[in-house]
TrEMBL record:
This is PAS domain-containing protein. It holds the Pfam family PAS_5. The lineage of its organism: Bacteria, Pseudomonadati, Pseudomonadota, Alphaproteobacteria, Rhodobacterales. It comes from Fuscibacter oryzae. It comes from the Bacteria. InterPro entries: DUF1457.
Amino acid sequence: MDLTFPGSERKAMTNTSPLIQQVRAYWEALRDGTHLPARTLVDPRGLSGALEHTFLLEQIAPGMARFRLAGMHFFDLMGMEVKGMPLSALITPASRDRLAQDMGQLFAGRAILDLWLEAERGLGLPALKGRMILLPITGTNGQPDMALGCLETQGETGRKPRRFGIAQIVQEPILQTKPEVSAQPILGLAESQAPFTPTAGRPHLRLVHSRD
C-alpha cells in the first residue's frame, strides 16, 4: 500500500491537533528534569478534555505493546473494546514491522513517537487520516515500559473496524532538560491517588487488568 500524506495536509493537521497538544503538554508538565513521568502520577482529571482519545500502553515484548486503558474513540474506530489488545491491531499488517522497530526507542525511554496514519480505503471505508503520539512513562518497576498516547483522526469512520497504515513516523529525542510549555503542572498529582469516578454516561477510559 503506497501511503501519501502531502505536506500541506500534515501541516494542517499539526495545527489542528489540540488533543495531542494537550496530552503532550500534560506529559511535559509531569516531567522532573531528566526523569520520565511515572504511571502513578497520571491522573484522568488532568486529561479531562482529551480522555476519549487518550490511552495507556504497556510493553509485553520487544516491539510489542497492548492497551491498558483506552478512550471510547477506539471503540468507535474498531467497533469493539480494545482493552488487552495489541496496539498492532489498529495497524495494517504492512506497517506493523515498522511500528515494532520504532517502539524500541520508545520503550528505551529515548524518544517520543509521532505517527502519521492513513486508514485503508474501500467499500464503506471513506477517507480517514490520523495522528498519534506515544510518550514514554515509567511503570511500577521504574522502567520505561509504558506509554501515554493520544490519537486524533480526521474524516468519517465508516464501516468498522478501521485500521491504519503508517505514512510516517517521527522519532523525537527526549531532551535532557524540561522544555518550556504552555501548560502548568496539575496540583496534587504527586499525592495519593483517589479513586476516579467517571461522570454520568459512558466511561471515557476503561481499566485493563493484566494477568500473566
